[in-house]
């Protein structure tokens, strides 16, 4: 125990980037998908036929297979819909890369699959061990991040809290602190990726072009003083001295004390700036491009189906056999976290998928349309037990078919 305490003291304390550093990382405008209008599903188990529609063999719109209704004329928009997604080997390919199953089934190079899987695993371990408190709560196996919320002291500000020296596994309040901290990280990632207001992070006004990175005291009659983290509107962005407006003050400021506010983010991965530096995020993008190429566009298709499926009136949930914190990490690493909220991610590892499905139905009530999407027998049987329609997505062609069906439900472009 003394050795563990010494190791904890020697290891650097995980912390978020400060507000200025976060603002200097790219952010992204929110993606909004139109509401769905897919028809009610009559059968319990639905399956897409790969020979009728696949990325390699697209058919004409009039010939497309309608897996969620008999015809476009039958479509009607439900007042509320809950989609229950499986994660592994449905939305992301990860475990099968590590085990070699994907290379055998898809006739891919086994060494390449394993190398990419191990590289992904390295990023996941970085998240769960350094930031998401997984070593502290691994044995607890919570079903959701809110399982210990009743023991939480919400008055405790976790930004300045010392997690390294306080933990006792039997202390439920301290367990609750860790799960809340993970929720705050997750919510912050979504906010950064979608360019929405964030906790304790000021938002740049529309006219701002730069942000100050250091304090500056006035040194000439025409210069103006400022504090670190203030927004500036610069009219001449070149040279050693810049003409700027900061608040109600206008004058000359040293260029070395300012940095440009970056343009909107390219994608969701810019939301990970609390965990990775910009060059590390670029390496992650490159890794995922390789994974996407190896899997024939599986991740691209997953992001596309989530975008088409999400929207007003639709709630997205996850039920996964992973523990809840590794599941959070996968959503973050694979860049699909923006479509889910932290309170709708369920781990079935401890109690099975049927009980998770029951919890979801209890949470959202009876007057809601439920549809489950996954690749496994357990979620299919749980769907049948709960009377939920089930869409099987065991292959890329099936996932692509679901994508096209959700996209066909979008409003006509005229």
- Low-pLDDT stretches are 7-19, 25-79
- The oligomeric state is single chain
Shape: globular
Q: Total strand count, please?
A: 11
Give the distance, in angstroms, between the N- and C-terminal Cα atoms.
Answer: 68 Å
Sheet-strand content, in percent, reads 5-15%
Classify the helix fraction into a percent range: 25-40%
What would you report as the Rg, rounded to the nearest angstrom?
Answer: 24 Å
State the major sheet.
6 strands, parallel
Structural class: alpha/beta
* Sequence of strands across the biggest β-sheet: 1-11-10-2-8-9
Order of helices and strands: HHEEHHHHHEEEEEHHEHEHEHEH
- Roughly what is the average pLDDT, rounded to an integer? 80
* Contiguous helical run count: 13
Features:
alpha/beta, 12% strand
Please specify the SSE layout and strand pairing.
Layout: H1 2-10, H2 19-23, E1 45-47, E2 81-85, H3 95-99, H4 101-106, H5 110-130, H6 134-137, H7 172-194, E3 210-212, E4 231-234, E5 241-246, E6 249-254, E7 258-260, H8 278-294, H9 298-309, E8 314-320, H10 324-333, E9 345-347, H11 353-364, E10 369-374, H12 377-386, E11 390-392, H13 396-408
Parallel strand pairs: 1-11, 2-8, 2-10, 8-9, 10-11
Antiparallel strand pairs: 3-4, 3-7, 4-5, 5-6
Helix pairs in contact: 5-8, 5-10, 9-13, 11-12
